[in-house]
Amino acid sequence: MSVPEDLTTLQTPPSCTADFCLIPLGTPTASVSQEVAAVQRLLKKSGISYQMHAGGTTLGTSTLSSLLSPPYPISHIL
């Protein structure tokens, strides 16, 4: 099975869940507090359902495209 170049056209089920965590690579400290705060602000503005937990953040939405498309593309912060 091949993956389409434009992931926003992927067919998704009625709901979509994504989980991610931030891992600092090539940085002078292990802290990601500023990045986590930026992601939280973006998620609050977006209206996407989310739950932050010790291991990362879980997102819930009706479509994958709402996670990847403007006005609040999560990928541009990460």
From TrEMBL:
<dbReference type="InterPro" id="IPR029756">
    <property type="entry name" value="MTH1187/YkoF-like"/>
</dbReference>
<dbReference type="Pfam" id="PF01910">
    <property type="entry name" value="Thiamine_BP"/>
</dbReference>
<dbReference type="InterPro" id="IPR051614">
    <property type="entry name" value="UPF0045_domain"/>
</dbReference>
<dbReference type="GO" id="GO:0005829">
    <property type="term" value="C:cytosol"/>
</dbReference>
<protein>
    <recommendedName>
        <fullName>Thiamine-binding protein domain-containing protein</fullName>
    </recommendedName>
</protein>
<dbReference type="InterPro" id="IPR002767">
    <property type="entry name" value="Thiamine_BP"/>
</dbReference>
<feature type="domain" description="Thiamine-binding protein">
    <location>
        <begin position="18"/>
        <end position="61"/>
    </location>
</feature>
<comment type="similarity">
    <text>Belongs to the UPF0045 family.</text>
</comment>
